[in-house]
Amino acid sequence: MSTAAPRPADQDQLWSVDEHLEDILTTVRPLEPIELQLLDAQGCVLVDDITVPVSLPPFDNSSMDGYAVRVADVAGASEEFPAVLEVVGDVAAGQAELLHVGPGQAARIMTGAPLPPGAETVVPVEWTDGGLGEGPVTGMRARSLAPEGADGEVHVYRPAEARAHVRAKGSDVKAGDRALEAGTVLGPPQIALLAAIGRGTVRVRPRPRVVVLSTGSELVQPDEDLGSGQIYDSNSFALTAAARDAGAIAYRVGAVADDAETLRSTIEDQLVRADLMVTTGGVSVGAYDVVKEALSYVGDEDEAGGGIEFRKLAMQPGKPQGFGSIGPDHIPLLALPGNPVSSYVSFELFVRPAIRTLMGLQDVHRPRTTATLTAEKALTSPKGRRQFLRGTYADGEVRPVGGAGSHLIAALAHADALIVVPEDVESVEPGTEVEVVLLG
Can you give the pLDDT of all 440 residues of the chain as single tens digits? Predict the structure, then answer.
């Protein structure tokens, strides 16, 4: 089970942002760990520390194409007085049986190949004549084209120190080292490391499955023709993208008409693939706010196994919110306002931390900082409300983008930060230090 029961509250209570968020984060539980193949684990959170079973690299190997030699045999070598060594054969990457390099001898060695017994260093092929006797070369000729290059003599024109161009065994990680810590999000480099130390599967908390559903008979899908009084459904696209950005596997259901039975049926159908449900629209006090109507039945524990509570928050935008759980598996559901900016700000403040909690992360919040407000005039904010204004942040300064209207999608598209105005502040003058939530 992913949730506990949300705490009950007075329906007339005006919740603070912090109280609502605390209720969400103390209710939502991390998903149970599962064992996944490496590529299926991308984006998931590691459950256990990973210890290195074998050193990387597992043997001394060459970092260059060249010749494996003894240090004494190339000491003092120059173009005028080259060291002349007997080539005893090739050492290639993956080769099981290794040659022995004795005094006065050299072995052609390829990048990644084990340093053969007796050899102490590697001279790059560019420091030699490549066995051709015609002065310095720029590379080796393929064995299939010049098999004679694997024997004969090679002229070396420069000396090399001990273990030059040699990758030491364990120079990356040593057996017994901790490769990755529990709580690490597995990206491409982490998956590469797991594969390199021989791990084909790993125990992780899976990426949460988030179902996003928007409501409103006025909503039309992009690429369709708009009728009178209709608008395009942007919320479901914005929130689905935001859920994926947060680390979830997100499914966009799209717009559901303002009909309580249709909405209820749609939600019930989607529960089978949801670890978290997000609705947008229909949570205010209008006659067509069907999310409240459709979900009112879930207060009956016996019938639905959960409860959705609709709240008023002391914030702008995003005053109307809903939260609880639904269905026999107590799937958490967050009901967000329908205005585009309200829904997106609500997602960043409440849904994203819930997703990150389901993933099992410790730090679930966007980073915050302080910045100097750069604006043409003072910002105003309603008393008793925590306001979140869109802004652009750079070099310790933040500038508002657009106004306070909750419908201003264009301004949101240019913002990379939220300017936070506390509940007890009604005006913020230019030059004031303000708190900023960084979105990018």
Answer: 455 555 554 556 899 999 999 999 999 999 999 999 999 999 999 999 999 999 999 999 999 999 999 999 999 999 999 999 999 999 998 887 889 999 999 999 999 999 999 999 999 999 999 988 888 888 877 666 555 555 789 999 999 999 999 999 999 999 999 999 999 999 999 999 999 999 999 999 999 999 999 887 788 788 878 888 888 888 999 999 999 999 999 999 978 887 888 888 899 999 999 999 999 987 765 555 677 777 865 444 444 445 889 999 999 999 999 999 998 999 999 999 989 999 999 999 999 999 999 999 999 999 999 999 999 999 999 999 999 999 999 999 999 997 655 456 787 888 999 999 999 999 999 999 999 999 97
Predicted TM-score of the model (pTM): 0.83
Residue 115 to residue 111: CA distance in whole angstroms: 10
Angle formed by the axes of helices 352-359 and 17-27, nearest 10° = 30
Distances (CA, A) of 175 to 114, 170, 183, 387: 18, 8, 21, 53
Q: Is the CB of residue 436 less than 8 Å from the CB of residue 366?
A: no
User: What are phi and psi for residue 367, nearest 5 degrees?
Assistant: -65, 150
